[in-house]
Amino acid sequence: MVRFEHVGLRYGLGPEVLRDLTFRIASGSFQFLTGPSGAGKTSLLRLLFLSLRPTRGLITLFGHDIATLSKDAMATLRRRMGIVFQDFRLLDHLTTFENVALPLRVLGHNEESYREEVVELLTWVGLGDRIRALPPVLSGGEKQRAAIARAVIARPQLLLADEPTGNVDPTLAQRLLRLFVELNKSGTAVVIATHDIALMDQFDARRLVLHQGRLYVYD
Amino acid sequence: MSTTDAAPDQDRDYGVDAPTAPAVLPRFETPIVPRATISGRALVAVVAIMTFLASLTTGAAVLVRSAANEWQADVAREVSIQIRPEAGRDIEADIARAAAIARGTPGVAEVRPYSKDETTRLLEPWLGSGMQLDQLPVPRLIVVRIASGAAPDLTQLRQALAQAIPDASLDDHRGFVARMQAMSNALVVAGIGVLVLVFVATVLSATFATHAAIAANRPVIEVLHLIGAKDKFIAGHFERHFLRLGLQGGLIGGGTGMALFALAGLASSWPFDPSRDDQLAALFGSISIGPRGYVAVLSEIALIALVTAATSRWTVTRTIETMHE
Predict the structure, then answer these.
(1) Helix or strand or coil: residue B108?
(2) Residue A9, beta-bridge partner list
(3) Structural domain boundaries, residue B162
């Protein structure tokens, strides 16, 4: 599904923040991406969701060499991924329902075909009574769950989550982890970037460890 | 998503609150691009003010141009015959002869000799009242009005007058018309110059205000881009939104300008103050910008709305490109 071959990344003329990364992410796999702050976790995630281009090396996503992709083709690949941002990135003028339904609207789905589905998912993540609420009035945990619901609503083949438990208490973090595990069971490949060791200890999964720009894989 | 089926019962406690589905399903009612933002309202205000100023300038240019054309046409429709008094000649007989020659010229609609009293009144502002014209060699005038659309042979008329009355001369106001034409052309060029400046300022203001409004919406663009929206989808939404804002501002500003001209036109044709009416009519004819003026203002509204929409599309596309830099 994802293949990195000797990938390097530098910002401008600065030093390489990611060096010679070579790894694969298989369909239906589950992995934690970890490492100390500033190790390059977010940069690696940005490479994965095509927000950055590598300065060297080869990246293939879903069998496509990203260096040869047009803008439209990149957008099409992004639709196969779900992204949970560390800062949620919910749109403040849209309700919780509308934020979660946004990817389906972008895909051009008929509203009637997804209304029930979105409500069902929101109810499942415990936001059944916050459907018409705007993000500014949601708590951190509620925003986190809305962001996760938005990332998974279009049934992505690859879910990328950047510190998805960074803003919640340990109990809610555990619940969110169980949500990701359930998604993985339904066939979605999951990459969770975190430096929360306690969270990783709760689930035995592959670990991709970034240290000083290099990647160490522990299967 | 079939998450309910996929999740076993013991895993249905992801939420903090008891999950309850609403009785009525919600709808996606909010526009993707936020409507009532401060930057959006500021853009409408800027476009409205600048379109109002542009419509006033356009109206003024149209008024000056039509007034100048009317002045020229009025002057060009008249020629005058001047008869100087000469010792030993009967000036009244000369006037009657000159008037007869003029009347006999094809294309002349009306010939009106000014009587002695009328000539006295014409000179009153300069020489005072109670003056005896017999003591002064004051020339007498015959006003010849040319029929609409006709072009009488003035050279032949001049020759005929010269043969019959040696002291008569024909003035076709050519020099005056030429000076009037130069002055009105200068006024029209100045009007068009001011209009171009105001219009450029309007376009620039709309462009900068649109840039600012798009910058305020950058998070929306980023999120749409990252969840897989194609550039066309994002740019299209913003373009439609900003076209609406541009039209709204343009209609407010241009509409106010047109309403003012319509009111001024009505007021100038309202006969409640004849003296003021005469003064305005002398300067501008009627204060009406006419259908062409209204069409010009409507075109400005449409153009400014299109500029706003095009600027938004360009800025959104540029914003998406910077996300990859």
Answers:
(1) strand
(2) A18
(3) 85-166
- Specify whether B183 is located in the same domain as B289: yes
ipTM: 0.90
Does B34 contact chain A (CB < 8 Å)?
yes
Interface of B with A in 193-222 (CB under 8 A): 219-220, 222
| DSSP annotation of B215 | H
- B155 and B239 co-located in one domain: no
Q: Does B135 reach chain A within 8 Å, measured CB to CB?
A: no
Whether A37 and A20 have beta carbons less than 8 Å apart is answered as no
B32: nearest CA partner in chain A? A94
Eight-state DSSP code of residue B243: H
CB atoms within 10 A of CB A79: 18
> B188 and B151: one domain?
no
Contact call for residues A191 and A33 (beta carbons, < 8 A): yes
Q: Per the CB < 8 Å rule, is A126 touching B16?
A: yes
Number of structural domains (chain B) is 2
DSSP conformation class of B133? G
Same domain, B199 and B65: yes
- The answer to whether residue B123 is domain-embedded is yes
**Which of B5, B223, B224, B317 is most worth mutating to test chain A (most A CB atoms within 10 A of its CB)?**
B223
Domain tally for chain A? 1
Distance CA(A139)–CA(B148), nearest Å, equals 82
Domain CATH for A68: 3.40.50.300
Co-location of B160 and B183 in the same domain: no
Q: Which residue of A has its CA nearest to B6?
A: A186
Q: In which residue are the tokens 């010269």 written?
A: B162
Q: At which of B138, B166, B194 does a domain end?
A: B166
- Asked if residue B100 belongs to a domain, the reply is yes
Q: Per-residue pLDDT tens, chain B, 325 aa: give them.
A: 333 333 333 334 444 444 566 667 888 888 998 887 888 888 899 999 999 999 998 888 888 878 777 777 777 788 899 988 887 788 888 899 899 998 888 888 889 998 888 888 888 877 777 767 667 778 889 999 888 777 788 888 888 888 888 888 888 877 777 887 788 788 878 888 888 898 888 888 888 888 888 888 899 999 999 999 999 999 999 999 999 999 999 999 999 999 999 988 887 766 655 555 555 555 555 677 888 889 999 999 999 899 889 988 988 888 888 876 5
Of B139, B166, B193, the one marking the end of a domain is: B166
CB pair distance less than 8 Å for B3 and A186: yes
Which residue is associated with the tokens 């008891």? B18
